[in-house]
Amino acid sequence: MSKAFKFIVVIAALVAAAIIMKQERYSSNPEIAAVQKLAKRVTGQFPKNFEFSIAENQAGTEIKDWFRLESHKGKIKITANNANSLAVGLNHYYKYWCNKTVGWFKNEKITLPEELPQVDEPVTVNARVEDRFFLNYCTYGYTMPWWNWEDWEHFIDWMALQGINLPLAITGQESIWYKIWTEMGLSDEQVRSYFTGPAHLPWHRMLNIDHWGGPLPKSWLDGQEALQKQIVAREREFNMRPVLPAFAGHVPAALKEVKPDAQIERMSDWAGFALEDYPYFLDPMDTLFPVIQKKFIEKEIELYGTDHIYGIDLFNEMIPRSWEPEYLSRVSRQCYESLAAADKDAVWLQMTWLFYNERKYWFENDSDERVKAFLTSYPAEKSLLLDYYCERMEVWQKTQSYYGVPFIWCYLGNFGGNTFLAGNIQDINEKIENTFVGAGSNFKGIGSTLEGFDCNPFMYQYVFEKAWDFQLHKNIDDYSYRLADRRIGNSSDIGREAWNYLLHKIYIGRSVPGHSPILNLRPSFGRSSSYHSSIRFGYQNKELLNAIKGMIEADGEGAAYEFDLVNLTRQWLSNNFEIKFADYKAAYEAKDAAKTQKLATELLATFDTLEELLESQSYFLVGKWIADARSHGADAAESDYFESNARNLLTSWGDRGNLLTDYADRTWAGLVSTYYKPRWEMFFADAAEALASGKDFDQAAFDEKCKDLEYAWWKDRPGTFTSVPVGNSVEIVKKIIK
Asked: Is 706 in contact with 679 (CB distance < 8 Å)?
């Protein structure tokens, strides 16, 4: 090659690089640049065929958030009032012109068509509510404890695409508490032992338990502080206002040693934890309370900044010292005043789960006097309430629309990360629309307070679409067709029919605590001793099979399609197990040893089929959960510690025989083969022995054996698990249902 030719090649390469750089130059407007970078992250390509523009508020609209889509000079032009609304507009285009769904996990990205569909007529969409809230304290335990920045980065992109502008942001607060408690005279060991293990921190933060699974490594505190700085900075790029924690009265027991005159008392028990794990509470009317509040808020603002919205929950699943309205009024007023003294612009956000969970106390004799006293003792404009579990009980309906205090209507949808098909779009549609009609001007937002991700993601996307004024989400039949196109990856009559069937026949019930297939629960001939153990599914299993067959016939493609096929099929297999177990119980009662043996063999084979199915999806791998936990260890000992904590939450939840055993159960590969199946193998063996000897089945003795197995599974860490998917999901589903 001649020197001249080499020179020409180099010049051509430089010119090409310059053209690409020009094409991929991010806007000097930081809000537009934020959305351009989001688009590149979720598609892998710079959005050169998109034009983004920031414009003033739409004239005549009370709520300032809006976006407009149109085709302009060969590009898709998206105009909006800020980065958050631009992201919603972009997502609207992805969903309704490209039939693409961006999922909430970091590997759920999309590929756009080579030629972008044109927007024939300009489309303008306005927000219906000011606030769109997301997350639950529990989500930080059941889904997010082991996330790194790559997980969070994609998830924040997902939140922006949904228009979420009020995310709960409670990572890294233990680092602040460590600084405060040590400054007040407590030792390193006293403070780190006050904290629980990482996966249990949400319940430590909510004043439920202390100590269990501690001491928390210092490396964890430092790592989470750095992570929180990244989280809130990125959220603010998308005009989100992170909801930060504030002091809710929870103090270490050791604080009594350095502050002996403070009104610190041990709280009541929670979920059967031992006395040594009971938390301690500083009365908000004690003079020390505002001192600690000020210390915490100042340190938090120094580290993470603030948008002046703080989460405080004084009596979550706990009983106040007194139920007298005067006391409840004084304690909430004092709490607010401590917050206002620390930040004059502070707004107190609190979940209203307590009014549902302890409703027999808060609404004693059907009176709302106690609730009203607690909520109206400080300025309404400085308060924001989360109506937490509206698909089950809309507290706004029982409280004169919260007496004019601003509130957000929330869909919960999942407890403990349970992997159970649940969600009723028609019911949610009606409830939200009724709230718009009847709640009043203090109805400020729509949100979701799910405890765990994974199982029914389309429900949450639907809830946040209700926050915007386009009409499609009000007609469930039409909505189901577009949902089918996105999740199957093509437009077909059979695919649309399958999803319409799912929304009308299968997704017909709300999620409840302990919503679990029977094969995930501690075996029993009667009611399982696992927590709540709600196994009802409310439809004929053949109906679910018909929907799965329809989706296969639709011949879809993409991550959402494969996820749905596996998700639906694991539920179908789990339902079959329950049906066949009923036959087993009948054979056992008839003392038919041969039939019980045959049925036991068939039932145990279900676990092997499930294991193969679940291994094909990264979402359903306990090996990934464990690998992510281990990755936080600074050394091998810390990695072992994190792994034990990660295993415990999904199984025993606490010590041997904890009341919350199986609360966070989920049908995941690894759990199925090494935890659920061995329990059932023991059960069938003990039942066969009882049948052969003519004795009654000893459930109490069997439960003790289960407790030993459950304890060993998280304490001794048996089994090795894949952390990456294996096999072809679609082909495995076809093989299972043929």
From this structure: yes
Closest CA to 439 of 488, 480, 399, 487: 399
Give the list of residues 6+ apart from residue 13 with CB closer than 8 angstroms, or none. none
Distance CA 151, CA 39 (A): 16
Contact (Cβ atoms closer than 8 angstroms) between residue 271 and residue 654: yes
**Residue 533 pLDDT greater than 80, yes or no:** no
Q: Whole-structure pTM over 0.85, yes or no?
A: yes
- Residue listed under structure tokens 């017909």: 508
Scored b (16 or more CB within 10 A) or e, 27-43 reads: eeeebbbbbbbbbeebb
pLDDT band at 687 (very low <50, low <70, confident <90, very high): very high
Question: Which stretches of 305-390 are DSSP H helices?
Answer: 325-342, 353-357, 359-362, 369-375
Left (φ > 0), alpha (ψ -120 to 50) or beta: where does 401 sit?
Answer: left
Rounded distance, CA 373 to CA 325, Å? Answer: 5
The size of the chain, in residues, is: 738
DSSP summary character for residue 519 = G
* Cα end-to-end span (Å), the chain: 61
How many CB atoms neighbour CB 1 within 10 A?
A: 6
For residue 698, the SS3 value is coil
Collapse the DSSP code of 397 into the 3-class scheme (helix H, G, I; strand E, B; otherwise coil) and give the result: helix
Q: Can you tell me which residue has the tokens 């948008």?
A: 307
At residue 725, the 3 state secondary structure works out as: coil
CB 127 within 8 A of CB 163: yes
Q: State both tokens at 318.
A: 């706990």
pLDDT tens string 76-93: 999 999 999 999 999 999
Helix (H, G, I), strand (E, B) or coil at 506: helix
- Beta strand 383-387 pairing with 407-411: parallel
**Cis omega (within 30 of 0) on the bond before 678?**
no
Distances (CA, A) of 178 to 172, 183, 220, 225, 487: 10, 8, 12, 11, 45
Contacts of 694 (CB under 8 A, 6+ apart): none
105 membership: H or E segment, kind and range: none
Contact 378, 332 (CB under 8 A): yes
Integer angstrom CA distances of residue 149 from 106, 144, 224, 231, 660 = 10, 11, 10, 8, 30
Whole-angstrom Cα distance, residue 186 to residue 301?
A: 23
Beta bridge partners of 93: none
DSSP state of 621: B
Residue 505 is inside which H or E element, if any?
Answer: none
Please tell me the predicted confidence (pLDDT) of residue 651.
97
Residue 2 has pLDDT above 70, yes or no: no
Helix (H) or strand (E) holding 293: helix 288-304
- Centre a 10 Å sphere on the Cβ of residue 49 and count the other Cβ atoms it contains: 13
Q: What are phi and psi of 526, to 5 degrees?
A: -110, -140
For residue 279, the number of C-alpha atoms closer than 13 Å in the C-beta half-sphere is: 26
Kindly report the three-state secondary structure assignment for every residue of 593-630: HHHHHHHHHHHHHHHHHHHHHHCCCHHHEHHHHHHHHH
Q: Determine how β-strand 66-72 pairs with β-strand 123-126.
A: antiparallel
* CB 133, CB 519: distance < 8 Å: no
State the pLDDT at residue 21: 47
Block residue for tokens 């789960």: 353
Query: In whole numbers, what is the pLDDT of the chain averaged over residues?
Result: 95
Task: Tell me which of 10-24, 194-208, 522-536, 709-723 is least confident.
Answer: 10-24
Question: Taking residues 679-706, what's their average pLDDT?
Answer: 97
- Calculate mean pLDDT across residues 105-133: 95
